[in-house]
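Cross-check.
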Amino acid sequence: MKPLLITDCDEVLLHMVRHFGTWLDEAHAIDFTPNGGDFAHSMRRRHDRSLVERDEMWGLLDGFFPAEMARQTLVPHAREALAALAEQAEIVVLTNLGDHCRPHRIAQLATHGIAHRVECNQGGKGGPVAKLIAEFGATVTVFVDDLAVHHESVAKHAPEVFRLHMVAEPSLAPHVPAAPHAHARIDDWREAQDWIAARFAAGSVAGAMTGG
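Predicted model, tokenized:
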């Protein structure tokens, strides 16, 4: 069986935050200053400096996906790294979007030269990762995501997976601490490619960890 790479999309393969912020400015007169925390505390209406409420935040995200997805740009070296890793592994893009966005995400990634299976998900990614491992029969799996909560979920539901924390947005990465349930933090795909390939070459599963 081939190894399996399961990777997130936004802030891993494609830049999202910078383009979402530009759209909020242009279309909604909202200033967006992400600091690595909750988006709901990062959006302020320009006319009165009031914070955008959580329910409205989700509505704005729904307005960006899928209508404004064409704004997104490729993370440097992501396409080349996936192409190289695909020579030895199966690759699945596991993205937290509504199911209605799946064909849009597939088409979007294809325009950037990335053509791999795409699965949409809502909530924690541990369960879906475990299902994909069972489906593929993978003996070695690497999971890449920018959000610590998903590394915690995968650690709980599929502890044998190697977990790589990546925040590919340079303006965001310095403000995001390393995910305690990830095995490594790497924000550049050139280095990440080598780390992932080494996990595949070793042919073993991840050992138990308590964090760090």
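The chain has a mean pLDDT of 93. The chain is about 35% helix and 15% strand. Passed to J.P. for a second look.
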